[in-house]
Automatic annotation (TrEMBL):
Name this polypeptide is given: DUF1772 domain-containing protein
Ranges annotated as spanning the membrane: 18-38, 67-88, 97-116
UniProt keyword list: Membrane, Transmembrane, Transmembrane helix
Highest taxon of source: Bacteria
Organism: Hymenobacter aquaticus
Length: 189
């Protein structure tokens, strides 16, 4: 049986609160990514990608999806980092917390290194001077790589849910704690 050292109640509550905030933030990011895949991408991944992307850019003049993701991903990372620090003595969930941090960071590094250059070309700059071949190639690469990013995000979410279930387990006494005395009365005949 896995036993977790007992934490002070306030520290445990704060750690669980930060972990829940990270879970909700990351869940919203995953939901936003799925929304993009289902509702937005089909609108610009047409046979005439350059013209469709111009219409897409015109629709998102004031705000774009980047603002959503750029707000929630740092919130998820910071909340998970705070939760991991607060729940440090809990070995099992802590290891999952570190794996989750690594998964989120890997996802973010992939996004910054691979997607951001394509996002700038496809969504943020005027497409007038960009050759259609470049636009079509970037759009196809963006779509294919987005499936990989969604798969990674899904794995991170599954780990989040498993770690959350472990955190919800009641605290167990430390393995070196003295056994509790028997509370049943001794019957004599």
């Amino acid at each position: 049986m896995n036993t977790l050292p007992a934490l002070p109640p306030l520290r445990r509550r704060l750690g669980n609160t930060f972990f829940s905030l990270a879970l909700l933030s990351y869940g919203a990011v995953l939901g936003g990514s799925l929304y993009q895949l289902i509702a937005e991408v089909p609108n610009w991944a047409t046979p005439d990608v350059p013209r469709a992307l111009i219409a897409y850019q015109n629709f998102f003049r004031v705000s774009h999806a980047g603002y959503f993701f750029q707000t929630l991903m740092p919130l998820a990372l910071l909340s998970l980092g705070a939760a991991t620090a607060l729940l440090w003595p809990q070995a099992g969930p802590l290891r999952r917390g570190l794996l989750l941090l690594a998964g989120i960071l890997l996802n973010e590094l992939f996004t910054v290194a691979y997607f951001m250059p394509r996002n700038v070309v496809l969504f943020l700059t005027p497409l007038d001077d960009t050759p259609d071949v470049t636009i079509n190639t970037f759009a196809r690469e963006w779509q294919l790589a987005n499936y990989l990013r969604l798969a990674l995000s899904g794995l991170v979410m599954l780990s989040f849910l498993k770690a959350h279930r472990l955190l919800d387990a009641p605290p167990q006494p430390a393995p070196d704690a003295a056994p509790l005395p028997e509370l049943r009365p001794t019957l004599t005949y």
